[in-house]
Amino acid sequence: MKKFVFGMMITVLLFAALSISSFAYENEDYYKGAQKGEVINVFNWGEYISESYEDGMIDVNKEFEKLTGIKVNYVTFESNEDMYAKIKNGGASYDIIIPSDYMIERMIAEDLLVKFDVKSLPNFKYIDKQYTGMYYDPNDEYSAVYNVGMVGLIYNTKMVDETPTSWKIMWDEKYAGKILMIDNPRDAFAIPQKILGYSLNSTDEKELGDVAQMLIDQKPLLQGYVMDEVYNKMESGEAAMVPYYVGDFVCMQEVNPDLEFVYPEEGVNIFVDAMCIPKCAQNVEAAKKYINFLLDPEVALSNAWAIGYATPNIGALNSDDYEEMRENKYLYPDPEDMPKTEYFHNLPQETLIMFADLWNQIKVSGGSNSHIYWGFGIVAASVVFYGGYKWFTKRRREYWYDFPIEK
Amino acid sequence: MKQKSLSQKLIASPYLLWAAIFIIVPLVFVVYYSLVDANGAFTLEYVSQIGKYKDIMLNSIWLGFVATVISLILAYPLAFIMARSNLNVQRTMMMLVMLPMWMNLLIRTYSLMILLQDTGIINSALSILHLPNVHMINTQGAVVLGMIYNYIPYMILPLYSIMSKIDNGLIEAAEDLGANKLTVLRKVILPLSMPGIASGFTMVFVPSVSTFYISKKLGGNAFALIGDVIEMQFKSSNNYNLGAALSLVLMFLILICMAVMNRFTGDDDDGGVLI
């Protein structure tokens, strides 16, 4: 996690650090009773948890280990699809995963998640009612919401002259070579889908074809497809714009104040990431403790500060230490500024296959190859020439000396 | 070849077991997955799809070839100088060659990306000196540079080991017989170092062609290589069958390239680290 340096807030934070340095959590008894040597494997997004004690935050995993005596193995993934492939193909065992909404829907449909009574967790009461009973899990049986976010356009005010209001700017040739695209199929498809006015959950073959064609047309203008490297590229001013998650923008802006953020008028994807227990889990009891721990207001507050996403935890949201973030207009837009939003849903199998195929086509498209044929031609010609020369000199010598030369 | 004694067979057995588990079995899996569909029924669908990836495959082989040739040109004189210098210098140079390999390939490549970026260290330094900036990242040149930088030790090492075995007496004899320096190089050193060239070529060419991380980080998206496409099948697309089919075809292509190469280097490869 990037360091937070808040010049003006430093005294307030120091005070906050002192006041929570005892790190008391609610219901500490709930965490008791772990066996010696218990381990929990956590599989989470990159840059998605509080990992340091700076500025009054806590290292969540260390604190959990201290509190329960359960060792935390923490591993990260870059996209829902990567995570899904690992779980689906077995060979890996995780106790906690934090996928997004549509992926949870898919994993429930494919029976990859453990059903547990989420409501019985002592800290369940801290989840904002708005984020319980979500469409993918109406009875709160599989998941507890961790974070809420939206995708918007991050741009560098020093490099982009106008104030973008539309996703169409990502097809503007003026910015060729300075545009980054998000490197996972659902998020990348979402942008042309919104421009063309299609649903993010379209299953129409023609619509998806149009979308893929737009992405292929855009490719020559792109600097690259990125996920976590986006931090380096945007903070250093290497790239001018990228569609990315709002929480990451909040962190990037701390480092590079030239960065700005906008929710384009065509509409954006809204998502929640939620904590689930996959079927491959070895230690479901410890996993429940971990989920409960992440729902603790103190922990949620620290996470909310560290990763910069909107928190669904009312305990953290209403904390005095959260005031500055609460007023962040990107994370919590005023109702009149709220963009048009749409959730992703799981798609039928045929559509998923079509998606994967189109995504492949986009990735391999472009690049002229004429120089390669020339290159191979020259290499082949020199090979033939050299072979012929060798053969000719050998024949000549054989003729001269009148006996065959070995090798 | 002499008959192997029982003890010789026993000593070789751990490696044979290793090879069976970690080389043969995975290869069998690759072949299996490339010939079945998601439900395990026999199909040629995936192998026949490779036509779509023809351009990207040729591109990968070409870039790998260029990187290998440049590595050879760079490494050959260095290996020769190393082999002819005194022992202390040899040791120091060997360490300098090996030093970058103590770091992980991913970190080396990522650092190279930070060096080459438009706002990177090299261009910042140029700006401070009021020199024009050079656009390096996201070009084919950057990908080739990444391959050379990462794999050149594999070229230097076999060349060095074979050159340090060349008898100085042979060179002196050639000179006594009136050969000038170029003739010595052409008629004595080059033929004797051929096995080293062959194994160095293989050891740089094969990983360069199938690399995936380097092209992604240094080539942006414009120069995706076949390795990137294969990685994507296994990582995010969850399509093991297509990934396996692509790997299989790539393996065949590499084998053909190696066969052509070996025609040139002759079949006496003693001393070379042929793989």
Q: How would you explain this protein's 3D organization?
A:
The complex is a heterodimer of chains A (407) and B (275). Chain A has 407 residues and is an alpha/beta fold. In chain A, 39% of the residues lie in helices and 14% in strands. Chain A contains 14 helices and ten strands. In chain A, helix 2 links the parallel strand 1 and strand 2 (71-77). In chain A, helix 6 runs parallel beside helix 13 (349-364). Chain A is globular. The N and C termini of chain A lie far apart (65 Å). Mean pLDDT of chain A is 89; it is low at 1-6. With 275 residues, chain B is an all-alpha fold. Chain B has a domain at 53-238: MetI-like fold, CATH 1.10.3720.10. Chain B has helices at 6-34, 45-48, 54-84, 87-98, 105-116, 121-128, 140-163, 168-176, 181-192, 194-209, 213-218, 226-235, 240-265. The longest helix of chain B has 31 residues, at 54-84. Residues 267-275 of chain B have low confidence and may be disordered. Chains A and B meet through helix 3, strand 6, helix 13 and helix 14 of A and helix 3, helix 12 and helix 13 of B.
Q: What's the topology here?
A:
The complex is a heterodimer of chains A (407) and B (275).
Chain A: H1 10-19, E1 39-45, H2 60-68, E2 71-77, H3 80-88, E3 96-97, H4 101-109, E4 143-156, E5 179-182, H5 185-195, H6 205-218, E6 222-226, H7 230-235, E7 241-245, H8 246-255, E8 259-262, E9 268-276, H9 284-295, H10 297-307, H11 314-317, H12 323-326, E10 341-342, H13 349-364, H14 370-401
Parallel strand pairs in A: 1-2, 1-3, 5-6, 9-10
Antiparallel strand pairs in A: 4-7, 4-8, 4-9
Helix pairs in contact in A: 5-6, 6-13
Chain B: H1 6-34, H2 45-48, H3 54-84, H4 87-98, H5 105-116, H6 121-128, H7 140-163, H8 168-176, H9 181-192, H10 194-209, H11 213-218, H12 226-235, H13 240-265
Helix pairs in contact in B: 1-13, 3-7, 3-10, 7-10, 8-9, 10-13, 12-13
